[in-house]
Amino acid sequence: MKRGEINRRGFLRASAISGAAASISSAEGPQSASESTRDVTRRLAAWAVTSRKEHVPAAIRREALRTVLNWTGCAVGGSRHETVEIAVRALKPFSGPEQASVLGRKDRLDVLNASLMNGISSHIFDFDDTDLRTIVHPAGPVAPALLALAEYRPLSGADFLHALIVGVEVECRIANAVYPQHYDVGWHITGTVGPFGAAAAAGKVLGLSEQQMVWALGLAATQPVGLREMFGTMTKSFHPGRASQNGLMAAFLAGQNFTSSDQPIEAARGWANVLSSARNYREITDKLGDQYQIAFNSYKPFPCGVVIHPAIDGSLQLRADNRLTADQIARIDLRVHPLVLELTGKKAPRTGLESKFSVYHAVAAAMVYGRVGEPAFSDRAVRDPAVMALRERVSTTVDEAIGEDQVRIAIMLKDGRRLDKFIEHAIGSARNPMTDSQLEAKFKGLAEGVLPAGRASRLIDFCWNLEQAADAAHLARLAAA
Amino acid sequence: MKRGEINRRGFLRASAISGAAASISSAEGPQSASESTRDVTRRLAAWAVTSRKEHVPAAIRREALRTVLNWTGCAVGGSRHETVEIAVRALKPFSGPEQASVLGRKDRLDVLNASLMNGISSHIFDFDDTDLRTIVHPAGPVAPALLALAEYRPLSGADFLHALIVGVEVECRIANAVYPQHYDVGWHITGTVGPFGAAAAAGKVLGLSEQQMVWALGLAATQPVGLREMFGTMTKSFHPGRASQNGLMAAFLAGQNFTSSDQPIEAARGWANVLSSARNYREITDKLGDQYQIAFNSYKPFPCGVVIHPAIDGSLQLRADNRLTADQIARIDLRVHPLVLELTGKKAPRTGLESKFSVYHAVAAAMVYGRVGEPAFSDRAVRDPAVMALRERVSTTVDEAIGEDQVRIAIMLKDGRRLDKFIEHAIGSARNPMTDSQLEAKFKGLAEGVLPAGRASRLIDFCWNLEQAADAAHLARLAAA
User: Fold this and answer.
1) Any residues with CB less than 8 A from the CB of B468 and at least 6 apart, and which?
2) Which of A406, A387, A407, A396 has the alpha carbon at shortest distance from A329?
3) What is the pLDDT of residues B421-462, one digit of tens each?
4) Distances (CA, A) of A212 to A57, A146, A470, B230, B395
5) Are B83 and B120 in contact (CB under 8 A)?
6) Nearest residue, CB atoms, B94 vs list A112, A222, A271
7) pLDDT tens, position by position, A153-177
8) Which of A94, A242, A261 sits opposite B110 (nearest CB)?
9) What is the model's pTM?
10) By the CB < 8 Å criterion, does B255 face chain A?
């Protein structure tokens, strides 16, 4: 069974998505070129410009609020990282007027540079939201563009939220159309579909016409960002930031009638053909406005790629249930989904950043520390002798019967005992999502040490009540240092 | 015979490149993975940071001066076009300090935005320089980044010229490694290799270390610009501009130690594997520093894609030699290289911009007007009844025996006569390059109506004497309105 099928059918098709009225769209069966490849971009653009917030179900709007809360926490939490320090230092001399905030910092930059920085910050810890079908991080490119725009021109909280939903819809539908082949080719999908999402969201706020929205998507199509080769370096976080900036710029240009292709996604030499080895345009056009992709958004309990969450969840549960300490453990055997080794197969990470791509490190750190927050992926943790010793006793076996949110763990103790655990749905997955209060706790943890005491609570309240806010930009002001 | 073979072997292998000491590098024979795929990026970066201007042959430096002159004229000439007007209007509100000039205009923008605008301007008329092996427009991404930098920090004319040579070298070698397959996939190669060229040139000026240069190339690799689908729209000119800006930004970030992949070009999921269906890394590493790619640069006598230049050249010659008028012509039959129809096969263009992608229009306009400057590709020319009528009487036949710089034209006159012309090497091709005085005349034509009288001559003088100039930025000041 191929990964896409596992992902789409095994993992998600059977799932009831928490908090959302949407079901999964049907994307199977033979595809007629005449009905499916005509005017894909235009139909998407037409939907984006005509979509009205009154028509969006309450459960979808609620999920969008959770997305905003989670994204804001991630951006604040990552804002003091060296990656952001360097980017601000390198580019501030060229920034325009102080139009928009960099969350968690005192810097104010022009709208385009602010969207770049906030997109970078939000991805630093690999702690941001994840679309369950495509592992896109939907908010990363969309929210920074919108928040910067909100500081530049009047935008109500309700309109902000609606534009976010529109941006995520466009971005994730395009991702659905090419996943997993596009990802397999080597593209970091968040950076390649992100410009579409940011362009659609910003274009919605700017009031683009249908034709202008098509052009904005064209300008987005021609600026994909992100090779997967960059994983493990600062450039990975650059991807959602630059995607956001590219999409926002696309909307500004298209809004002044800078022309582009009328079929940027579906043309013979359009985005989908050039950047993917397969595509299904029905994923883009079917049930537009009836089913919302943000319903498939998920939030991470651990600051690393979602594919190793089952292993961490299982390790923490085994440790707690059996009151284990690392020195009792002789061996840990994992049976994992194929993607786990493909994405996080580094056996001996050298830096904190690299350790996020090591299931071996993650499991060892979980066992040694008993919790897996950002410090578990620090340079210090990577060099911790206890973690290093245990890491070498972790082995993995790929098992195609294991779902993406599953793991099977066997621990052999030095006293001869064997402990087994099967995680059916990891915490943070579609079947076992984080609760609102877990999201709030995660937010507070991320804001700690960055924002003044009390600010986190006010931000949380503001996020939950965003739809009643007259000015969405207040979110940026609260989240700035 | 495949296109790449025609291009590399038929067209160029036999050619003596005017004004250049270089010969063609050997890129054939079986490729050993071990020797060819290791440290490709690092070897290129090491060469770029250690290259010294004293080692560059005089003929190469002379070709670089011709490149600068031609590029400056194109950027000045395109600067008042609607495409640039819109881009400046859309993005100026977000520009930083007035650090650098937009050529041909009064606008001053920050360094990054200036590089974008000048890159757009220089490609507007499709009149810019063309690498004969890959149809890359080498100066488009490289020169704007350097010129903007020259206004931001001290840079002598000689160092400017050397950095330009380095940038073009990096950009064209990477292009050589993936051409024609990368182009066939659907990428606008100038926009995808351009960020490498701009990053290398800017990184040279900024004094990056070898490791920083590797990272700069990594940040360039992850930001390719340009789908060929955009041809015929304003977004095509956006590609070299954004490529320039991306590469310049990459150099700024890398200069502050923003990390990226160590093997961005050659890794399994690196640029060459993800963006092309074939690759030959020897094109990147063989004879680095012994052979210079700028030797293969060419300059267009007509403001459209180089592939239809033979047809225009032949049409103009037949018209002049036989004192033809359009109404004498019953039919024009062209035998053309396959790329002509692939790139310029539009039978009925609707706009001036589209007409550049119509060999039918180009030949008809040549016959009707007797010269082919920018007005021949205006909206007015497209709607000219005489051009439209003749356009419909032009037919094409693909002939794989015809080289890229060749065409075979047969004109059937209404009086029954038949005129034949075989163009062996079109004007502007490797075997028949434009002379220095033809380049000067082209420059003056482009500057006419944009810059004050007399300024064109001063600019021409400054370009020819660039190596003696203490301050390269004077070029920008002379070329600003």
Assistant:
1) B157, B158
2) A387
3) 999 999 988 889 999 998 998 999 899 999 998 999 999 999
4) 27, 18, 27, 15, 36
5) yes
6) A112
7) 999 999 999 999 999 999 999 999 9
8) A94
9) 0.88
10) yes
